[in-house]
Amino acid sequence: MEIVTRADRPDLDEQAAVVFRERWPEFIFHDDVPKKYLARVEQFFSRYDIMVLDDEGAVVAGGWGVPLAWSGKTEDLPSGYDDAMVQAVEGHEAGTPPTTLSFMAAAVSSKHDKRGLATTVLSGLTQRAREDGLTHVIAPLRPTWKHRYPLVPMAEYAGWTRADGLSVDPWIRTHQRMGARILAPAARSMVIEGTVAEWESWTEMAFPVTGDYVVPDALNLVHIDRETDRGSYVEENLWVQHA
């Protein structure tokens, strides 16, 4: 296995895109904040955008994060994924020294499950953060199984544990096994809005009346307003901090 940055190997962009998109619902890619900030994230923070290559040089996993200034106090956490991205970019442009790396996403090819590659990605990013003198590592997690319980608040879901004391959720467990502890819900982590037709296209569902809908792979309900022709989704994630 080899770890490289995407900036080092732009020839692998298409492979990396396949790995990153295959497990995410389509609506996730229609958040307006990344549309405004992601180009600058790629420009400023390429060191924290990595891929794992197998022995044949194929992309099998990847992940990225952003450095930002955080006090270490739970009450000072960004509101979630979107806000972490905004704070990182605007902080960099303002010359504010970062103290913290926030993991933003990690993905493993479905052909390479159960090999510990997510841990490889997270460990690789953590090592870079330590080398750069950052003192905290945090993440606004999108728990793997939370979409099965869209009516359950994140704070309650985060407290569900197995007999061994670890979370019932596989993604939370991955972080716990690396020494992470749960901090708090990220109540407004991502906000995605679109027309009713767009939401029907993104989800392959029909939304015939105004109301709140359970949508596959959505962690929370999606609100559809037929009168104003708008659908809105506010996703709650979970902040964790690595040791």
Automatic annotation (TrEMBL):
It comes from the Bacteria. InterPro entries: Acyl_CoA_acyltransferase (IPR016181). SUPFAM superfamilies: Acyl-CoA N-acyltransferases (Nat). This is N-acetyltransferase domain-containing protein.
